[in-house]
Design brief:
The chain has helices spanning 14-26, 44-49, 66-79, 99-112, 130-134, 141-160, and strands spanning 2-8, 32-38, 52-60, 63-64, 87-94, 115-116, 121-124. It has 163 residues and is an alpha/beta fold. It has a single domain (2-160), classed as Rossmann fold (3-Layer(aba) Sandwich), CATH 3.40.50.360. Strands 1, 2, 3, 4, 5, 6 and 7 form a seven-stranded mixed β-sheet that branches. The longest helix is centred in the last third of the chain and has 20 residues, at 141-160. Residues 4-163 form the Flavodoxin-like domain.
């Protein structure tokens, strides 16, 4: 059985909602196991045992969150040259444009020699004041549907042997 590993970090709940929607969409493939894990609980063994990845992070100060970066810091070298060619996609819950966080994930994925198999999803909450940035987020149904479709697409690709 192939495994889709969805690694996420959340501070205000938005990224968790996106990751859960992706996991829900992916669970429609009976021969694909879906592992939905917070970044702080995910280690090198999880990365090495997965067939594909979905990385989900909030945008913090125009970059990925520190705890998502910590996940990559802990897992990068143990997985280097051992995950080449595996498929991945990314999701960003952003207050502005999310491009800085996405660039960081893309650079790390390039180092791991992962294969981007879908465009990233960036959900912009437009949170620009301290109060709105720190407030719990509610992701709209249209954006959650896009996340579910991404999860379903990754799982279908694994199931069909497309990647």
């Amino acid at each position: 059985m192939k495994t889709l590993l969805i690694v996420y970090h959340t501070m205000t709940g938005g990224t968790r909602q996106m990751a859960e929607a992706a996991a829900s969409g992916a669970r429609g493939e009976p021969d694909v196991s879906v592992e939905l894990k917070p970044a702080v609980e995910t280690g090198p063994d999880d990365v090495l045992s997965a067939s594909a990845y979905l990385f989900a992070t909030p945008e913090n100060l125009a970059t990925m969150s520190g705890l998502m970066k910590d996940f990559f810091d802990r897992c990068y070298y143990p997985a280097l040259d051992r995950v080449n060619g595996r498929p991945y996609a990314a999701m960003i819950c952003a207050g502005s444009d999310g491009q800085g966080a996405l660039r960081q994930i893309e650079r790390i994925a390039t180092g791991w020699r992962l294969n981007a198999v879908a465009p990233a999803i960036i959900v912009c909450t437009h949170a620009q004041t301290p109060e709105r940035i720190l407030a719990p987020k509610v992701i709209g149904s249209a954006d959650l549907a896009r996340c579910a479709e991404l999860g379903a697409g990754l799982a279908a690709g694994l199931s069909l042997g497309v990647f």
